[in-house]
Specification:
7 helices, three-stranded antiparallel beta sheet, 3 strands, globular, about 50% helix, hpI Integrase, Chain A, mainly alpha
């Protein structure tokens, strides 16, 4: 999947709320590298404002022993803002099962004639590819994805 396809998905105005939500969460994952399970667990308190007035996700990831710090770019901040008052509990986003989400992503791919299967796992590859193309060292990208072994980190375009 290429950046152009990601941009097209983001700019699409879906009339079906379930597709709009899944699109937003997929895009959020593309720009944060968070796995589906970490997005499910993401709470409002996990979004923090640093001393330099930038927003960060500070989260204990599902597979990690420590806390991950992820800078929030403008696009994922827009997604957070969109859903900030939707959930009455502490969770940030309305969620369905990962299986349903991936079914809905398949539907979105069909709308755009995207041949590659898209999933939340693919979103993490898109994130890694984006960072690598920006010249970020593979070791840093591996850490951002919370990989325990650098061999888990993709070195190819999605």
């Amino acid at each position: 999947m290429i950046q152009e396809e990601v941009d097209r998905i983001w700019k699409k105005d879906f009339r079906t709320p379930r597709l709009a939500i899944i699109r937003d969460l997929f895009i959020f994952s593309c720009f944060t590298g968070l796995s589906y399970i970490d997005i499910c667990r993401l709470k409002k308190d996990d979004i923090q404002l640093s001393s330099d007035n930038k927003h960060w996700i500070s989260i204990h990831r599902m597979k990690a022993d420590g806390v991950s710090q992820i800078p929030l770019l403008p696009l994922p901040l827009q997604v957070i803002e969109k859903y900030k008052d939707v959930k009455p509990d502490d969770l940030l986003f309305p969620l369905t099962s990962n299986q349903k989400n991936n079914e809905y992503l398949k539907e979105i791919a069909e709308i755009y004639h995207i041949k590659k299967k898209i999933s939340f796992h693919v979103a993490r590859h898109i994130f890694a590819t984006y960072l690598l193309n920006k010249g970020i060292p593979i070791e840093t990208v591996s850490g951002a994805l919370d990989h325990s072994n650098i061999k888990q980190t993709p070195l190819h375009d999605c």
